[in-house]
Design a protein that fits this description.
With 344 residues, the chain is mainly alpha-helical. The radius of gyration is 21 Å and the shape is globular. It contains twelve helices and two strands.
């Protein structure tokens, strides 16, 4: 790889990292304002115009808080656990294409950090690692509430990861590839080429599983303040506590981006050839991707402040007795359709 190629990759990494961190700040602010609107409250309105600087004030507060480490915790694992949760959350976005390619410096530059031919597998692998951060945080805290939160989270993520993975299999069958760019290409054409119309059941299963994977209401059984105080992060303070929430919002951003990529045509604008419009087409594709993401991020907030939390037995029953059989049925249905289509 030449110096220019290395520089381009480095710039893309920095841009994606900065955009994700900015997205985390925006989501913290949006969560407060949208929930306030839904509950007929004002929300943050003191720090900056309309309270827009409130997330920065929160960050400064976390930096200034005392970093407490309880006496009988397993200190190395206790310190490492938040990083185990945050780092995969930041790495996952690397394979998601967020716009059409652009021509600069005499070469075509893909708006994607890494174009991996097993991109879907890469994402599923990294999302499965994050559960280790939660389980280790709960176990190392030497606190019964934290341990229960960690155990709940591990059972929940394993249960819903199966349904989510099987829902994605049906998309892979249609596209014939694990590469995310191929999945986007397979959806280009019109609105009805999007997988939301071709695989509505897979979309529903995937969306519900994504809420469970990100530990958002109504699936936040691993925190459950009324039962477990705060669950796996009960004993954490200062920036370690902040890292858990940064990871949650980073996972939400990645989940929204992946949903758009798999089911809503990714960055594609229907009935429009972005490549023929040059730079304007590229900017339009990025804007299309961001607007689709914004819708799903709003949906995350809307659902959190609308639905009550499941009981744990309801959570497990939904995962194993409803979503898993439906996901398997959808795979057989899709495979059968493709077989009949191939036979003519």
């Amino acid at each position: 790889m030449d110096l220019l190629g290395f520089t381009i990759i480095l710039v893309k990494v920095l841009v994606v990292f900065a955009a994700t961190m900015l997205g985390v700040l925006v989501m913290i602010y949006a969560e407060r304002r949208v929930s306030a609107f839904m509950q007929d409250r004002v929300g943050p309105n003191r720090v900056g115009p309309k309270g827009v600087l409130q997330p920065i004030a929160d960050g400064i507060k976390f930096l200034m808080k005392e970093d407490l480490v309880p006496e009988k915790v397993d200190k190395p694992i206790f310190i490492l656990a938040p990083a185990i949760l945050l780092i995969p959350a930041l790495m996952t976005f690397a394979v998601i294409p967020f716009g059409s390619s652009i021509n600069l410096f005499g070469r075509e530059i893909a708006l994607q950090v890494a174009d991996v031919n097993v991109g879907v597998l890469y994402i599923l692998a990294l999302t499965s690692i994050s559960v280790y951060g939660i389980v280790l945080a709960g176990w190392s805290s030497n606190n019964k509430y934290s341990l229960l939160g960690g155990l709940r989270s591990s059972a929940q993520l394993i249960s819903y990861e199966l349904a989510m993975g099987l829902a994605v299999v049906s998309i892979i069958l249609l596209a014939g590839s694990l590469r995310l760019n191929d999945i986007i290409t397979d959806q280009q054409g019109s609105f009805f080429s999007w997988n939301i119309f071709r695989q509505p059941l897979a979309f529903l299963i995937f969306l519900i599983a994504v809420y469970a994977e990100t530990n958002r209401l109504p699936f936040d059984l691993s925190e459950a303040e009324q039962e477990l105080v705060g669950g796996y992060h009960t004993e954490y303070s200062s920036m370690k506590f902040a890292m858990f929430f940064m990871a949650e919002y980073a996972n939400m951003i990645t989940a929204a981006a992946l949903t758009v990529t798999l089911f809503f045509g990714g960055w594609d604008v229907p009935l429009l050839d972005e490549g023929s419009l040059g730079l304007f087409g590229t900017l339009l594709s990025v804007l299309s991707f961001l607007l689709k993401m914004a819708f799903f991020l709003f949906l995350f907030i809307w659902v959190r402040w609308t639905f009550p939390r499941f009981r744990y037995d309801q959570l497990m029953r939904l995962g194993w007795k409803v979503m898993l059989p439906l996901a398997l049925f959808n795979i057989f249905l899709t495979a059968g359709y493709l077989t009949l289509k191939a036979l003519g």
